[in-house]
Amino acid sequence: MLRQNPPPEYQERRRQPPPPAPAHHRFPRPDPEDPGRRPPPAVPSKPHGHGQPLLDDDLHRYPAQRPPLKPPPLKRTSPLAWFAAIFCALLWIVVILGGIAVLVVFLVFRPRNPRLDIPQATLNAAYLDVDVDSNTTLLNADLTFLANFSNPNEKVDVTFSRLDIDLYFASTLVAASAVDPFAERRGESVLRNVHMVASQVALPVKDAEEWRRQEAAAAAGGGGGGGGEGGGLRMEVRGRMMTRSEIGSLVKFSYWLHGLCSIVVGAPPAGALRSVSCRTKR
């Protein structure tokens, strides 16, 4: 049986050498000078380690060996900083809630300040004495008045824990007294009799002259009779009161009240009250 020759295309393909093997799979050729020597085994090329820089070809050839991008390490917050932040947040919450509560209380109850008034006063005695040694004018006076402490609130009870009363003539303190503590219910008024005594109180020259002038005007106006403010002795009653307001049984707050009453009385011994003007504020 005759063997047919293969077609020319097949012969051309057989003549073409096989494609070269990849570099890392090639086996080294034997040494022509020493045919019996076995060549060393082929070692594939290794990617660079961590201590060697990578080239662009290596990065494209071994994409898995690219150095990973590490985010910067997170700094842990100290417990003290957390405690300060939580404390400030709680403090702000308490302040805000307290402000809202105070606003609601004032809008609902509308608390008002208690008032001090003097409906009646009498100058029982008053005269000036002169100290021969120091040539100083000394005042001796006896004044009684009725103090009215009123609570105008309809939903708030008031307690006066301390009441200090001072009597001034011009700019000089001439007498001082105190009132015992008491409590007032809503819409209630309490009357207290206050006795002020000035004994050997030194007056400046200007105040002594003013006392003589006003006393003469009060005597000319009929003593205890009627008359205007110019016909009497003008004095000031100043009250300093520690007050506590109670709204129900839960809300209680304390504050100082300052009362100022300007009174005009006639000449002694029956120097009745001629005019009065009072105001009370915190």
Automatic annotation (TrEMBL):
Entry keyword annotation includes Iron-sulfur: no
InterPro entries (UniProt xref): NDR1-like (IPR044839)
Region (Disordered): 1-71
Official protein name in the record: Late embryogenesis abundant protein LEA-2 subgroup domain-containing protein
Residues spanning the membrane: 80-109
Gene Ontology CC: one annotated term: plasma membrane
Compartment(s): Membrane
Major localisation: membrane
UniProt keyword annotations, A-Z: Membrane, Transmembrane, Transmembrane helix
UniProt source species: Apostasia shenzhenica
Biased composition (Basic and acidic residues): 28-37
GO biological process, any: defense response to other organism
PANTHER family: LATE EMBRYOGENESIS ABUNDANT (LEA) HYDROXYPROLINE-RICH GLYCOPROTEIN FAMILY
Keyword flag Transmembrane helix: yes
